[in-house]
Hints:
It is a single chain. By secondary structure, the chain is of the alpha/beta class. Among the domains are: 180-263 and 449-539, no CATH class; 270-330 and 368-431. It has 18 helices and 18 strands. Strands 3, 8, 12, 13, 14, 17 and 18 form a seven-stranded mixed sheet that branches. β5 and β6 form a beta hairpin. α15 crosses α16 (565-592) and α17 (616-626) packs across α18.
Amino acid sequence: MIIKKLRFCNFLVFPGEQSLSLPSDEDSSLVVILAPNNSGKTTIVRALKFLFYGRYPDDCTRETAYKVINDKTRQLAANDVEIEGWIEATIERDGRTFELRRTIRAKKAKGNLWRTTEVCFEEVVRTGANTDFRPDQNGVFQRTIDTLVPEPLFDAFYFQGEPMRGDLLKGVFSIRASLAGFLHEDRWEEAKAAAENARLFFFQELAKASKGHKEYVNKLETTENVRANIAKEKEKLAKREEELEAAHEEFDCVSMDLQKLGDSTESEKLISELRQAKTEQELAQKKHDRADADLCRTVGRSHGCSFVLDAIPPVATLLKKLEDENILPADVSEGFVDRVLKQKACICGRDHNKDSKAAWNRYKDKTLTEDANRGLTDLLNTVSGNNSQNILNKSAEIEESVGGHLKLRAEAIAQANMLRGRVKDLEDKLLHSPVEQIRDLTQQLRKLVQTREKLGQDIHGLKAHINTLMRSLEVFKKELEKLKPVGVAAQKQKALEKAQERAATLRDLISDSLNILKQSFRRILQHSVTRDYDPVATDKSHAIIKHDLLPALEKYDQQVTSAGGGQSQLLAVSYIVALAKLRKELHQQLVSLGISLGKIDDQSFVLDSPFAKTDNHYSKAIARFLLGSARQIVVLMARQQWDLVRGELEKNAAKIYSFTLHTPKEELKVDLKDFDFDFGKNTHRLLNLLPSGDLPYTEISVLK
């Protein structure tokens, strides 16, 4: 049902006549109403409920219904003068429009006491300048409204978001009752119970008619027990088949999600390359560390020889002079020279004389101690010759070794830098790769395969058991046939048996039909909420429709019992829209069967504060979801919510209204800044302060 226009007259916070024109010519139109808190957002929903069903606001009863009339209007009314307040809607149905108005009239008595004089529901017919009112005789208009919007569904199509406060779907009242009404479950159950009662009645009558035949009655009771077992097993079978169908549907959904994400081969390849690159990076770092350690050891063992190379030539010259003077290499000690001088003859065999002794003393004076002598000898070996102690050779070896270590170190640094860039590149690619999602979905598929296999085995076992019971039943039937009496009693028994069989068949048919209908509803709802919720969820949760046709969230195969406000709101809105789509599907099926109830597929939605208690992500997600979800959506929101979604809604809304609150300052219950709404390039303060003592009211204006 589409609402083309809403008109208020002295109704609750709206004094005088005010209206909202709601566009609906496009396939999808969004109307935004910007309203500060306590300015009348909820009044819209209350007004519709009063118009459709005559339901008063929560604080009113039939005796106090006059409170529906605007306070200021009542304040200005004279005694014994009847005043009225009404709500009127122009409604589109099946391509045609009609107008309905519900009016409440009241009169003030002395002492400021009020009494309600009349509440009427009428069709408004305008012809040129004339306006006629046609009372709802025989409840024709009321039945029309009840058909278009069954009262249990009102809270689904016209709902308030703020009371939800993050509790999963707590704000969408009577949803289950609505579905029960859709399904007419009570009628189905009544019909099923009636068929079973009829079958039991015929069975009891059959037992009474045969009470003189004990063996027949015993066999009849045995047959009845087998029938009861068959019925129980069939119920189990139906439940398992329903679960299997749900598992198949979920498998298909997960498979489609997996296909959208793509093949996991590329992601797995990236992971493998990243793992290899990190391993090589670690090896390059170890190579670098080893080169540093080898450099330290080599420099430590060199004792700084490379730094004294410039001193080698003069040292070598000096040592060469000492060597030429027969001082180096010196292989004798000072004690040895003293012993030679004490002898009569020199070591050459000639007798000592003054000259030979003088020569030995000169040698002794020039010759150093043994330790110093050995040190000079070692120094001589270090600075000359081709031995391993030669400092030039040793320095060359150290230089070669250090050069090798530096080369390895440079190679390790270059390789590590290259691999560091490679690792970062692969990590960036993986960051945008859905590999984790693919893994999760693949794991879900494996579990679903196991679930399907288990359910398939259960179904196979149940069918086998039912077939066994059915064969036993046929055997008992044949045995009963042999035990049947003859004559007139036989004819009566045959009639009772036939009636019992028909009642049992009818009971099973009703049960099977209800199960099929539920599965059909569930399939439609599941497809819709999955499409609208799953792509938006940030925590890998996904929407499901349970077997009782109510929505829920699952994450890692576990039901989410406490979802955030944003998730709850998104699930609630997507589920409500799914109900409308279910209506459309039912309408199309009825038309295909040649049954027409009028055009019931288009539905108007009025959402009061759907962004309450939601974070930035889910607010924007809900806003984008609302665009194009239905032919007509009306959204009421306060300033904080408008700030969150203005970017999504301002340019796409077909119409934008504002509610300006006129109130005395002492009546203000919120901060002044909550009345400031940014729209276009301007800021609109939706507040007008009245003199103290005046009554507050709301004025409707058009912004776009």
